[in-house]
Amino acid sequence: MSLTKLTSLFKGIRFRLTLVYSTLFGLFICAFAYILSNQYFQSGRADFDSGLLNYAIDLSEYLYIDDSGLKIDFKLPESEIKKAFPFILNKTIYIVRSYDGKILSRSQDPQPISEIPFDSFLPSYEDYTHRYKTFSIGNEVFRAVNVKISNEHDKEMILQVAASMDTLITRERNHLLITSLMVPTLILISSFISFLIAGNALAPIKVLTETANTIAARNLSLRIPVPHTGDEVEELSKTLNNLLERLEKSFKSQEHFVSNASHQLNTPLAIIKGELDVLESKERTMEEYQRFHRSLREELERLVELVKNMLLISRVESGLDSFVFHSLRLDDLLLGTSSRLRTKAKEKKITIRFNIEEELNLEVMGEKQLLDSLFENILDNAIKYSPEESTIQLDIKNVNSRVEVWIQDEGPGIDEDDFENILNVRFHRASPRGITGTGIGLPIAQKIAQFHQAEIDYRKLTPCGSLFIIRFNASQNQVTYSNQDSHS
Fold this sequence. Notes:
Elements: H1 3-11, H2 13-61, E1 63-65, E2 72-74, H3 78-81, E3 92-98, E4 103-106, E5 131-137, E6 140-149, E7 157-164, H4 166-214, H5 232-264, H6 266-280, H7 286-318, E8 326-329, H8 330-340, H9 342-347, E9 351-356, E10 363-366, H10 368-385, E11 391-399, E12 402-409, H11 416-424, H12 441-451, E13 455-460, E14 466-472, H13 483-487
Parallel strand pairs: 9-11
Antiparallel strand pairs: 1-2, 3-4, 3-7, 5-6, 6-7, 8-10, 11-12, 12-14, 13-14
């Protein structure tokens, strides 16, 4: 492994997770080993003291004093010698003392190496109370117990029994050795296992990173594999895929805008340039200037409308803006739209009539600018294609618990087979009738309706006329949507 990869490994989250887990596990196992060893040592020493005391009691029961009371000895039966004790009997010594500390008798096998320490305060204790003491003889550690005894001569004495702690100390050292070897071994094994587990858990992130590195503007359609783990990694993959989807829509929206702008803006600009060239080619009369002025004004208005609509649909599709929805009244929206288009309607002597059902909840959740644009595009088309001195009817109804806006005109209408193309394909127009238009108004209205979870329906009337129906969901007065929700 190269130095760069090794350095990268130590800086990676996998190593840090392993280090954190190993540290916590190490602290836990060390604390556990300490508590366990402490309990083990206490239990071993308690067993040692208990065995030593039992042995001392057995000795005291087989104490022998001759009739003169001078010779003191112990006569243990064979059964007592065969008992198991937590020490070696051959390394056990005992001494019988009087209360003043004088040695009355002592063990002869093994040969006494030294005396067992004697505390002068022992005689002051009543009855059978014993006291332990640890001391050393050379390099060997002994543990002693003192027991008060009496006999038929009414002679009170103190029996001291000491046993070598070599067996206990050896067992404790072996325990410490095993523990000191096992604890680091367990930590190393757990670290290795945690490293493997962390690698397996982070494997989807590695795949996610590799896939993300291959995604560029030219292949935003690629998606990150989603592991079905039910954890944060799966949630992160889904979130990044949603982000990529929004980015793809944003890029496509920009591409569409550039493509549409280069295609659609070229025509009115070319017309304006041609008109100006013709205008400047020679001297013109006032009537000719006015005619050129009207022509240029129409093309500029068409250009302004086209740019406005293209920017609006790009904004809706890209999702770059956060739209805040508020409670809006449909009657206020329609009145405002009709007021803005009143001049156009008057030019053709068109009457706009309103009809609102009584006791109708007119409030919907929406973005005012977008809904204004939706109604304006449909109503503007109705005015544009309606004959002079005709009527446009605006109705707000409640149909099957849904609020509906009906916009009806007396124009030539649209073939229903052609309507779907006009509604969903930008710059697609029905058969030309000598009426200028951009072919983008209804697609914008469709996008805005979908954005508000509404739908646009169309009916061609007989013998003539068009009816546009915008249906709002019944839940729209209860739910607030966000721009992100509409694209997810």
